[in-house]
Specification:
It contains 2 helices and no strands. It has one domain: F1F0 ATP synthase subunit C (F1FO ATP Synthase, Up-down Bundle), CATH 1.20.20.10. The longest helix has 33 residues. It is elongated. It is an all-alpha fold and 72 residues long.
């Protein structure tokens, strides 16, 4: 019995929880900030997109680890 598929599934599942929560919090707080100060929307949006990209990079690292587990 090969446990690599299960290990890969656990790796990507656990690795996606943090970025998923982080991106949700980031977007929610950015929408609150834009709602309070609409004039600052471009600066807030730029910072939000940059932070989301960094959070998404962590999920991509988890995907790479899962692929390594599965195929190596």
């Amino acid at each position: 019995m090969d446990i690599a598929p299960l290990a890969a599934a656990i790796a990507i599942g656990a690795g996606a929880i943090g970025p998923g929560i982080g991106i949700g919090l980031l977007a929610g707080k950015a929408m609150e900030a834009i709602g309070r100060n609409p004039e600052a929307a471009p600066k807030i949006q730029t910072a939000m997109i940059l932070a989301i990209a960094f959070a998404e990079a962590i999920a991509i690292y988890a995907l790479v680890v899962a692929l390594i587990i599965k195929f190596v």
